[in-house]
Amino acid sequence: MDKKYKIIGGICGAVCIGGIAAGIFFVRGTGEKEAEELAYVMSVSSMNDMSGTQRLAGVVESQKTLEIQKDSQREVKEVLVKAGDDVEVGTPLFTYDTASLEMDIQQARLDLERADSEMANLQAQIQQLEKEKKDAPEEEQFSYTTQIQSAQMDLKKSEYDKKAKEVEINRLQSQIDNSTVTSEMKGVVKSVQNQEQTSTNMYGDSSSQAFITILATGEYRVKGRVNEQNIGEIVEGQKAVVRSRVDEDQVWTGTYSAVDTKNPQNNSSSMYYGGSSEDSAQTTSTSYPFYVDLDSSQGLLLGQHVYIEHDTGMAQREPGVWLNEAFIGDLNKKPYVWVEEEGALEKRTVVLGTYDGEMMQYKIEDGVENGDYVAYPQDFLKEGMKTTHDPAQASDGSMEESGGEEILQEETGEISEEEALPEGAEEITGEETTQEETSEEIIEGEDSSPEL
Questions:
Q1: According to the model, what pLDDT value does residue 284 have?
Q2: Do 362 and 354 form a contact (C-beta atoms < 8 A)?
Q3: CB under 8 Å to 247, separation ≥6 — which residues?
Q4: Is the alpha carbon torsion for 107, 112, 117, 123 positive or negative?
Q5: What is the pLDDT of residue 316?
Q6: Which of 119, 404, 412, 445 could form a disulfide with 27 if both were Cys (CB 3.0 to 4.6 A apart)?
Q7: Is 237 exposed, middle or buried (0-12, 13-18, 19+ CB in 10 A)?
Q8: Is 48 in contact with 292 (CB distance < 8 Å)?
Q9: How far is CA 266 from CA 228, 232, 287, 298, in A?
């Protein structure tokens, strides 16, 4: 898969170079105006991004999430943390109100004392009945036996009630002792619900229904979202690159997980102020979350916003300035590059480094910076020639309005009418018109081609 992206990147680079080669043009004024020559230059930095890699937005989140639910039968007395707080194992999070529990446990203890008293009375009653039964006549034995059995049943019931009360007291005491809920892991509080059950979230969403959600620190992953149009870009198991938004040379690698189509999120926004619901419905899309499991998360921060890209292999090559080989003249002897300097071309010698055969690029050790602009080398380029950054300038009509005639050199080999026809020669207007239209179509086609 990586090699596939590298080959595609190389092809895109070759196509772009072909377009740039056709982007050199002359503007010749009619009448007594002197000819003006312009050379199209492009930025070196854009060549390093010529692979057409699509970027997606992502945010760093924890691999492990702890969701703490509160007891619906109990009332929270105080919340001790807020979203964004760092917590350790054992950090108090919130406390329950224990006033009602303390009253319940007092009542349960009274009931327990009453049960003990009843049991003592029943035991004494049974002993007295058994003693009297021994001396009672035979016709009264049955009555004593019935009374003793009834007392024994009451005693067993009292013993059961006592045990139940002891269990209840232990439960109540445990709730009082554990009225403060603590964190079970080290992390950052992601969200806390208030008493009205509305969640306050450090990321601005309210998807979690837990009372408090904690994200573990240390092991991270990156969460992104795709919609119906680009969901096919994410393939489970494919390599991905995570790039810092602050320093694009800082990258991390990982692997895509499957897109979670079971948890869609609807996003709607109207492109017009005061737009109707019909307009809003047309801009509604559904997004689906996906994750990048990182090979290493060292240097990343929880909640950090990053770029997510397909891994084309360029992230692993040497950092520095890379230039397409087609822009380098005299490769085998004394390599040089046509570089823009204060609006004009300068022929500059460069020192070449590593060659990337798959991307067809050389690393420039000296002579060209990433912020420079360079021109595709052609025979008629010369030092001091004026430059332009706008490839559309040759075909947008601005030159023609000023009386100039645009002629594409090197691509078609055309020359001006005055140079092509000697005095007295007949004009072949139809053929010239066809050639001019063809040249203009080629220029327009190059100018309208998508950036790679």
A1: 63
A2: yes
A3: none
A4: positive
A5: 62
A6: 404
A7: exposed
A8: no
A9: 11, 18, 6, 33
DSSP 138-155: HHHHHHHHHHHHHHHHHH
Q: How far is CA 86 from CA 90, 113, 189, 367, in A?
A: 12, 47, 6, 49
Beta strands per DSSP E along 73-230: 76-79, 86-87, 92-96, 180-182, 187-193, 199-201, 212-216, 220-227
Strand-strand pairing, 351-356 and 361-366: antiparallel
**Contact criterion met (CB below 8 Å) for 240 and 312:** no
DSSP-assigned letter for residue 383: T
CB atoms closer than 10 angstroms to residue 190:
26
Q: From CA 79, how far away is CA 199, in angstroms rounded?
A: 13
Helices within 178-301 (DSSP H only): 277-282
- CB-neighbour burial class of residue 5 (10 A; exposed 0-12, middle 13-18, buried 19+): buried
Write phi, then psi, for 398 (nearest 5 degrees).
-65, -35
d(CA 160, CA 139): 34
Topology of the domain covering 56-65+221-311: Elongation Factor Tu (Ef-tu); domain 3 (2.40.30)
Residue 213, SS3 per DSSP? strand
As a whole number, the mean pLDDT across the chain is: 75
Query: pLDDT tier at 59 (50, 70, 90 boundaries)?
Result: very high
Total count of residues recorded for the chain: 452
Strand partners, 370: none
The third-level CATH classification (topology) of the domain covering 2-52+319-447 is 2.40.420
- What angle, rounded to 10 degrees, do the helices at 99-135 and 138-177 form? 160
Token pair 């005055």: residue:
418
DSSP letter assigned to residue 123? H
- Between CA 151 and CA 143 the distance in angstroms is 13
- Residue 361 has a pLDDT of 86
DSSP 342: T
Of 191-205, 247-261, 298-312, the one with minimum mean pLDDT is 191-205
Are the beta carbons of 53 and 310 closer than 8 angstroms?
A: yes
Mean pLDDT of 327-331: 89
Residue 67 is predicted with a pLDDT of 87
